[in-house]
Amino acid sequence: MGTKKPVVSPSRIGTPAQPKLGTPKYGLLKFMIMVLKKAFLFLWLLSASMAHCQKQDKLDLTMKDYDQWNTLVAGDLSPQGTWLSYRLAYNGGVDTLFVKGTKTEKVYPFPQGRKVLFGSDEKWALVFAEGALILLDLPQGKQKVWDKVISGQFMGNSKFVLFEKLMEEGKELMIMELASGRTTNIDMIKEYTVSPNGNKVAYILNDNAVAILNPARGLGAKVLFRENPLPRKHLVWNPDSDALAFLEEFIENGDKAPNHRIHFIEDLAHAKEYFILDPSSPSSPVYGKTILYNPSFTPLAIAPDNGNLIFYLKGDTESDNNEDEVQVWRSGDRLEYPRNLLEGDPKGRPKLACWFPKTDRLLEIMDNERYGAYLTEDKKKAIVFDPHRYEPQPESYGPTDLWLMDLATGKREFIVGHQSYKTGFLGASPNNRYINYYKNRQWWSFDFTTGHHVLLSHNINDLEQKSYPGGQQPSHGVAGWTADSKFLIIHSEYDVWLLSPNGKEQIRLTDGKSQNIRYRVVTDLNRKKTHFSLYDPIGRTFDLRDGLVLESFDLNDKSMGYFRWTTKGKPTKMITKKAKLAHLKKAADSENFIYTLQRADHSPQLLYMDANFKSKSMVRTNVQQENYGWGKTELIAYTNSAGDQLHGVLHYPAGYIEGRQYPMVVNIYETQSQYFHNYFNPTVYNTNGFCPTIYTTDDYLVLYPDIAHQDGEPGPSAVDCVEAAVKKVVDMGVADREHIGLIGYSFGGYQTAFIVSQSNTFAAAVSGCGYVDLVGNSLSLDKGTRSNMWRYQTHQKRMGASLYEDFQGFVDNSPITFAEHIETPLMSVTGTRDTQVDPQESMKLHLALRSLKKEHTLVLYPGEGHVITTPKFQKDLTLKTKAWFDYYLKKIPIPKEMGL
User: Fold this and answer.
1) Which parts of the chain are coiled coil (predicted)?
2) Which 8-state DSSP code applies to residue 628?
3) Taking the model in full, what pTM does it have?
């Protein structure tokens, strides 16, 4: 007979009945299962209770708490690495600069401090704070303060300090010997400049007298030129600090704009070699021409060997830009009409020129056919070109034909045709023998001596960035040249390479490709000098005897590291962390470093690393975070319809309870998983109106998905990838599928508008400064000067074709085409002075949805551009965005003061 089942009274529910002796085995098994179920239920209730208690132990972060947070700004190391500087910036408090010892516990705070200059002897530092200059005795902590200081620096191997003060009657220059405290004051200063070697200062007084002073040889000045009624300005040293030039302004009869004479003293020690280039002298090679002065570009430079001076001459014709005249726009012109007014007239453009003072010979480097130029470092050669050679064309900066000019003879030699001169496509070696250029997906060199072109990167197949369709794609970058010009240092998709300019050697320094790790040279740390260029730097130099520091980025888990490479072998690990590492700097005269480390839940800290690569924390920021609930972050993986393996960053809410589903906001903009370890201060002052921490501390999930683009389909690609990412999170059981919001800004604003025209996944959306009409936008003017078409053909808008090559594609990728399908409550945001994306784009969508009687709110910020920069508007936008999502995702009424 079977055992009778015991009757359990209702008051005993949950308490298992005791088995009797002799219970069959199956009854015991049944009993054990029942016990385990009860135990699991108890443990689940206990864990939920503990999670609730833990959340209650932490404070809820509210807006009134945000001002406690600060932002770490890493500073510098002293030459021997015994002192460092950093700054903490606050939204609601006083920014403070700190100087701290790396071997001691000494810390010196300076409210409203801006920067620190360390002396070479580890004893002195100059601190600029609150309009004052503070001389800090580092070991003793003693301070000497001077008010109303404009600028200052150390001189003479830090034996002297020089600074410029603002006085009632004018500016004053003061030089103090640090050992003795002895000072000299120079009154009525107009301008000054310290020599490159730091030993001498040249200055111009208000009466236009010019003098130099070498404090190591006494505090008495040497007057080079007596007072003069004509204004003198723009003092320039040569690289060796033994020659000086300046401009002297004059106005000839009938002229409105000033002209200039160039004064040049080659031998300052004896003041014997003195030259003048005078446009007013009939015997001068520049007679009848105008020497320009414009501080926005380098107007005057001396060659390293003092053989020539470089400057600009005024164009041959005046710009004719009369707004009252009738405009005639001709489709056959190389440039669009507004752009043509600014830069299209070669005769009216300033021309780079070269003067040889010893022979009084002038060479105009630029002419009306080739009015673009780069100079080699020795100022003996120039690369000249016509920047508009192939206009109209579909790229931001079109290709051109490059010519090599010998400044000694003025002769030109053709180098290469149809070559991009954009930053990163062109460089020059420090020995002035080679140029390097990127063409047809390969790196090449051109040898000035032999006239030969050499392919350097043969058999390296991952040099090209596949950023945008159409046009010439950029490489993964070039770090620069070695100081001895034996190697060009380039980056492939994963690795760092040394390429010899003769094409015979290719040395791969890293093995990132096999590990899915990307390596890059830390260029600012190792940079010795920047090549002289009148437009952009065209190269950096690295002394391989000092080694290289490399940054690593693991594309699998987004961890980062630093490695030291030397000529002895493979890179040595300095540090690797599952964190974001940044701002690595090296002490000038020792093997000590500083860097910052942060994680999504770990506010940035500043660390010090010694020569053995041992690190210690010097500054922890925002320790008050420990008092508040804070979310965790997870890297998710998903696949789009094309089979691309993608990542997304999922931020969980503070006090997350497993099993509960939360509302979620999805923020989109191209790829963002590289920001997995980024820490976000809670703040209402956001240029795009969004801060994830505001949401994760208020029971929201926040997702940053990666988007992989198919050529010609920027809209559908976004729909595909974002939908796949959202499905992944919903399938994880953490997101409430009925309460998901979408936000994007700029290109993300466009994709947000397109997604909601194709999908009803989202309960609310915000589109910031996005374009909606690809047909109309492609036929508008970019910043009022040139056609926007290039952005579609070869840039971010990714159509890969012009409008009339793929008209239907432009229509099919336009949110405005599908406005009638938009059911998602949408808020659009723009600035009234946005020159990047015309505010009319947001207005078009608003008018379309208005005519369709669909819900839409448009917010325009007066006077704002493509990003919101005014703090009160940043706060307003952040609060409006939060209120919008709170209403549609949480059913919280929108406050009346939001005006929505």
Assistant:
1) none
2) B
3) 0.90
